[in-house]
Amino acid sequence: SRMTTSARLRITGHYAGGVSRAAAAALDFAIAIGTFTAVLAGLDLLSRIVLGDSIASNRSSPGYVLALVSWAFLYLWVSLSVAGRTVGKGIVGLRVVASDGSALTVRQALVRTVAYPFSFAILGLGLVGIVIDRRHRALHDLLARTVVVYDWGGRAAEVPGPLSEFLARRAGAEYSTTQPTG
Fold first, then answer.
1. According to DSSP H, which parts of the chain are helical?
2. Rounded distance, CA 16 to CA 154, Å?
């Protein structure tokens, strides 16, 4: 059957590719660093007012690095445990789920968060799976038994109409289509 001009490809639940995941990771990096910097600046101001001394004077100290790593860990783990996504993933329209499609467990979120840095170790070889694996899984996904899928909440994740038509002509309409509701 031929798609009409208003038909769109549904991508909700499809495995997220490298570009979407990279965009979400970049947003999460900026959000984690930005919020850490803002909180530290506030605490430093308070410390200078109350104690007369700065707590953020040496950004290369082990304490500073430990605080930043702890903040980033908590940002990722709590976000994934509570919502199955980080703020960056939410903005891009991604969700982390168990490999079988069920909701992410707190344990899976923990394993994924702990394993995340190892995907970047050794020249990022742990990320190669995002490109070559059929389900676009990185090392941290494999270890936690998770996948990243497109999910825009209550609104169906759809490819724009003209792109849907182009892809349907190229692929023989292998994706499901829906009519827009509004």
1. 18-50, 62-83, 87-92, 106-124, 128-132, 139-144, 161-171
2. 18
Q: Which of 21-35, 70-84, 90-104, 151-165 has the lowest mean pLDDT?
A: 151-165
pTM of the model: 0.75
Residue 126 and residue 140: Cα distance in Å, rounded? 8
Cα distances (Å, whole numbers) of residue 170 to 2, 121, 165: 12, 38, 9
Q: CA separation (Å) from 50 to 40, 42, 44, 56, 114?
A: 15, 12, 10, 14, 36
Nearest to 126 by CA among 114, 113, 141: 141
Cα–Cα distance between 41 and 66 in angstroms, integer? Answer: 16
CB 104 within 8 A of CB 84: yes
Q: How far apart are CA 144 and CA 146, in angstroms?
A: 5
Q: Is 162 helix (H, G, I), strand (E, B) or coil?
A: helix
**HSE-CB of 24 using CA atoms within 13 angstroms:** 23
Helix (H/G/I), strand (E/B), else coil: 97: strand
